[in-house]
Amino acid sequence: MKYTGKYFLLAGMVVAVAGLSPLRAQETYLAPGSALFSPPPSSPESGQPDDPILTIKARVNEVNVLFIATDKHGKFVRDLNQKDFAILDDHKPPQSIVNFRRETDLPIELGLLIDTSGSVKGRFDFEQEAAVSFLQNTVRPKFDKAFVVGFNGHSQMMQDFTDNATLLSAAVHRLQDGGGTALYDAIYRACHENLIKDHEDRPSRRAIVVVSDGEDNQSDFSEAQAIEMAQRAEVIVYAISTDDSGLILRGDKTLKRIAEATGGRAFFPFKMKDIKSSFSAIEDELRSQYIISYHPADFEADGRYRPIEITALKKDLQVRSRRGYYAPRQ
């Protein structure tokens, strides 16, 4: 979601700005007394452009929301139109709808966060193979990009953003299990350091896939802070539980809360073969989304949380999206 309203810097001349991507206002979020990601074992090129000499700042009160629609059997419905949905922003209908379309081919920026703590040791090797297969099938060269983070008590960037499936696969295979679990820190920092955007050269979908048992015991950040950062970064969180007890434990409930708050989904594979099916379901969902863009009614750049509700007007359809967003602060 983007929030835009415009103002321009003039330096003795009129500057034409049509067609420029807006820069979104952001606040600075700092970790409470702990280091950010450890550097990766190797040093791939970042590919980040130099800062421009002249900065033209802009903000428009436009909100973009990605969502999916499923039938009563849970199958994706991909042929719907704007008239099939109703939306409320901060409990009010939007002032105007700017755009509605399917986003099956929108580029993906993906973070894969794998829990390497001692509690996930039993199925670790199989999870690595399933994760590698997922990355190979999902990341399209010169279009999508992904990064890999391993976390236990600390987060380590194993591979920064790349579209090279070989590098991503190698990063997953370098992971070694052991240690505690700082799940909330891993999500917070992945969103803050890698996925939050001051501006976008092109629209993209941002998602995180977390493979973990959800049992956090070493984070500096809280669950609520991790969710808030994901919402501010407009990141959808998917979670695959590594718990194989067949029960819904405390960690599973944590994963479910985080996923649902961000418009994602949590999976609880009981058998090892179901882990691969969970990754396949996420891959399919990432290709089955709609996007609606609108101007909210009574919008103010006050930094306040604004809830979103999208409902299907057709019978037996279910909609899943993020539950809200934070307005930029003036």
Describe what you observe in this structure.
- This protein has 6 helices and 15 strands.
- With 330 residues, the protein is an alpha/beta fold.
- The chain folds into 2 domains: 106 residues, no CATH class; 179 residues, Rossmann fold (3-Layer(aba) Sandwich), CATH 3.40.50.410.
- A 6-stranded mixed sheet has the order 8-7-6-9-10-11, with helices on both faces. It has a 4-stranded antiparallel sheet with strand order 5-12-3-14, with no helix packed on it. It has a 3-stranded antiparallel sheet with strand order 4-13-15, with no helix packed on it.
- Helix 5 links the parallel strand 10 and strand 11.
- Helix 3 runs parallel beside helix 4.
- It is globular.
- The two termini are 17 Å apart.
Descriptive keywords:
6-stranded mixed sheet, 4-stranded antiparallel sheet, alpha/beta, Rossmann fold, 2 domains, 6 helices, 330 residues
